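Protein modeling request. Please complete all fields; requests missing the sequence field cannot be processed.
Requester role: graduate student
Desired output: 3D structure, token encoding
Chains: 1
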Amino acid sequence: MPHLLWAEQEPEDWWRAARRAIHAVLRQAAIAPTAIAAVGLTGQMHGVVLLDAGGAVLAPAIIWCDGRAQAECDAWTQRLGAERIIEWTGNPMLVGFSAPKLAWTRRHRPAVWRSARHFLLPKDFVRFRLTGECATDVADASGTGLFDVRHRRWSQEMLAALDISRQWLPAAFEGPEICARVSAAGARATGLAAGTPVVAGGGDQAAGAVGNGVVSEGLASVTVGTSGVVFAATGQMRLDPQGRVHTFCHAVPGQWHVMAVTQSAGLSLRWLRDTLGVQPGAGDAYDRLCREAARSAPGAGGLLFLPYLMGERTPHLDPLARGAWIGLTAAHRRPELIRAVLEGVAFSLLDGLQIIQSMGIQPQRLALSGGGARGRVWPGIQADVLALPCLRWNRDEGAAHGAALLAMAAASHGQSSAAALQEIAARGLHAVAQWTPSTAARPVYAAAYDAYRECYPRLQTLFPRLSASVAVSAAGDRQAAARPAAADD
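Delivered output (489 residues):
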């Protein structure tokens, strides 16, 4: 994060890590590479990797949580109109999507733009190194802001409006569709057998949903990792007219999904851990924090936490939103501070769930996954706040498991239907923990959530001023550092 709102990674680091992981898996599993029937891919969404004509990376990847392109996002929304963009792509243009990052690159890195010949998403860069092919899946492509989600193809209207060449873009395939094969170079790098089929796979959330059995309506998932996601599958395309949630193609052919995103879910707890200086000791630091939170009653003694440490997507679409504790008193101690963070993330997830429910999707239960599904405390808070039965499956590999299931579907059935994928995903899947919403906590959380929802509108106009003050301070620091030292310094 070299500047305020920036977030970058080196694509070659992903490929280096993938090579090591594949070698380790082959070694630990003690199986012949030729025994692998197909390979699935998954990874973080919305990133921008630009390659030149020879396949070399031209600049660090601008990743999903980067917020530098808000000006480009606003300019294109004003020029084209939010309604037209939603009509073309199924979603508003958001600063986290790929399209504004491409527009920013054209404006601020013209040399990179002139040399670019291929645009890839993060996992698809790994595919390129593994197979030599430029390809993606319809779920991951849905998060670029350049994809016609309704018709499951690149949006010609959006590409023309942004003056982006179709030749730059990878071919888009359904999740369990074979799109490439391991090349000789990929085989030498990883130990896989040359010619092994590679399926399109899915972005992390779509693949994770397959791994959690969320391939049709009825079951939804809540994943709390760095970010937090409420994910619901649907057999028909459904849109939120305000664009507060994402409507993407699912990794399951013929299915779509609706997704609400909390930018800083597990990240909020990690920030708290680092800030409070939790020392090494018996047990995991996060588990110890959650056990401390359990000493506080629901409602955290009237303390609220806004988890906007990296801006927010659902429901505010505001990259300048700031985190806050609201209601601090001298009576509050560590248990209340920690519990408020856990509850604040759950309230943000409830913001998204209620929008999804308003769109006519009514999940009956929620599958919890990610770090936020560990232990008993935070999952219990999520069940109480979301007011739906929650469960944790016996599998916790998440997106990686879903990518493997998509590869299995291709190897077993060719390009599989939703019914076939549902059968494959359900094999060996059973709940190892369940939570029923507490009736005693319901009125406490209803009152706390009402207060939580009032906080953002009251603080909204303050956030841009705070960001501007940080930018002015940073500029002053740079100027001071550039001045020559005085003789007596």
